[in-house]
């Protein structure tokens, strides 16, 4: 397997993980902001922090999983 193919897989894994983590983080952040009654414009900041944090973590793990999986041949 070529190195470019492995890099493409890791990049795609990170992108998919980031998109999925961002979507889940936005839903969860909205729920938490409403639940804890975060005031005013701080809701937007709270939801944004939750979205970016969740996207980064899930993207990292999916990218790492793609990197580990890239070295295996079946």
TrEMBL record:
What residue range is the signal peptide? none
- What this protein is called in its record is Reactive oxygen species modulator 1
Report TM segments: 12-31, 51-70
Q: Which organism is it from?
A: Rehmannia glutinosa
**To which protein family does this belong?**
Belongs to the MGR2 family.
Keyword vocabulary terms for this entry: Membrane, Transmembrane, Transmembrane helix
**Pfam families the UniProt entry points to:** Romo1
Specify the taxonomic lineage: Eukaryota, Viridiplantae, Streptophyta, Embryophyta, Tracheophyta
Which InterPro entries does this entry report, sorted A to Z? Romo1/Mgr2
What residue ranges carry the coiled-coil annotation? Answer: none
Compartments annotated for it: namely: Membrane
């Amino acid at each position: 397997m070529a190195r470019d193919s492995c890099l493409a897989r890791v990049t795609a894994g990170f992108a998919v993980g980031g998109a999925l983590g961002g979507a889940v983080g936005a839903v969860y952040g909205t729920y938490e902001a409403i639940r804890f009654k975060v005031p005013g414009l701080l809701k937007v900041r709270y939801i944004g922090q939750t979205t970016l944090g969740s996207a980064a973590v899930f993207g990292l793990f999916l990218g790492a999983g793609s990197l580990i999986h890239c070295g295996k041949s079946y």
